[in-house]
Amino acid sequence: MKSLLISLVIFASLPCLGKSIELMSYNVENLFDIVHDEGKNDWTFLPEKVKGKKEACNKVKSSYRKKECLETDWAKDNLEVKIENITKVIRRDDKLPDILALVEIENENVVAQLAKFLGYKKFVVSDSPDKRGIDLAILWKESDEVKFLSKKELVLKGEFFKERPSRNILEVEFLIGKKEKLTVFVNHWPSLSNPTETRIIAANTLRKRTQAILKKNKNQNIMAVGDFNTIDKNFPHPFKTVLYKGELYADLHTTFSDDKSISWNIKNQMAPGTYFYGREMTWNLLDRIFFSKNLLNKSGLEIDVPSYRIYSPSFITKTYEYRSKGKYLYGSTVKGTPFRAEHNSTSNSRAGYSDHFPLIVNLKY
Fold first, then answer.
1. Nearest Cα residue to 335 out of 359, 313, 319, 317
2. CB–CB of 91/24 below 8 Å?
3. Fewest Cβ atoms closer than 10 Å to its Cβ: which of 41, 139, 249, 305?
């Protein structure tokens, strides 16, 4: 009896372990529906028999893109396989992330199909001016622990974007638990084929909105996730000159890598990046998770740095072989690269997944 009382006293004195939610960010590579959106250049990802597709494809200036457009027969079976394969990546151990940020989706229609298959009942989708119709989405498990508060979109503005409009930045605010507010920005910045200045504009757009939120509530928890299409050699650098200025944001990958309490074995088991650029045989961290510093102040909502992962299970990886004849890299191989989507396949084992790996992190409160 005495030992039981001692055990009860010890148990009662233990600190509360608290709760946590999981966030995943994933560029799913061209998740399009099979219906033409008026005014959008979505012809590549349509069934080959759709009226007007052949004519539209033949107008494409790039010979590579024209061939891709003409040869891609994106139909019902292809879309179903794509959704099944994405689901296999997202639903791990039969569980879904509490908050799922998606990049490179077409519209609400296709997100609704994916959400239904995954098991999400709640989602929001951006409505960007991007000419291909590319957008962003957030899906979440509505509960007493995660409640939707608001949605907003940030439009990238400037002379460049008058001719080549880009994706909006999707802003969604949640209430986590009973009192912790969390703003999540989902990003898909202009690609690396565009001038660095376009990504500087995106960074400044994100920065100004973040500062406005913090001015209103200095304790607001803020995360910026997605595909930032930024590499180290970009100059001026959008992260170093804009996002990191005044310690507005910190990069989770860097924070994780610098954390000496996390073993090298764990760090070294992760993929070297989220995207593999075959032409130069290089890994890139195009996908990032940035966070405001109050998410590490050991009060309220807190980012669980050791839980961070570039999620790359073997089934979504492939060995890449360099095939450009006449180049010194010809025949070289790299294991563990993303098993990118083969859009003409209707076989789950051959259709692939995405050219990006997803990122995962837990938030404690």
1. 319
2. no
3. 41
DSSP 255-285: HHHH-TTS-HHHHHHS-S-SEEETTTTEEE-
158 in the same domain as 54: no
The residue segments making up the domain with residue 57 are 41-74
How many independent structural domains does the chain possess?
A: 2
Last-in-domain residue among 74, 94, 128: 74
Residue (of 157, 237, 220) closest to 185 by Cα position: 220
The rounded distance, in Å, linking the Cα atoms of 2 and 45 is: 71
* Intra-chain end-to-end CA distance of the chain, in Å: 36
What sign does the dihedral 301-305-310-312 (CA atoms) show?
Answer: negative
Using only the alpha carbons of the chain, give its radius of gyration: 22
Cβ-Cβ contacts under 8 Å for 14 (sequence gap 6 or more): none
**Residue 93 carries which side chain, given as an amino acid letter?**
D
pLDDT digits (tens, 9 = 90+) for 50-65: 999 999 999 999 999 9
Give a three-class secondary structure readout of 181-214. EEEEEEEECCCCCCCHHHHHHHHHHHHHHHHHHH
Angle at which helix 76-90 crosses helix 108-118, to 10 degrees, equals 50
The two three-digit tokens of residue 92, written as one number: 């791990």
Q: What is the distance between the alpha carbons of residues 41 and 85, in angstroms, rounded to a whole number?
A: 25
288-323: per-residue pLDDT in tens? 999 999 999 999 999 999 999 999 999 999 999 999
Question: Does residue 22 sit within a domain?
Answer: no
What does DSSP assign to residue 132?
Answer: T
Q: Is residue 28 part of a domain?
A: no
CA distance 205 to 197: 12
3 state SS of 12: helix
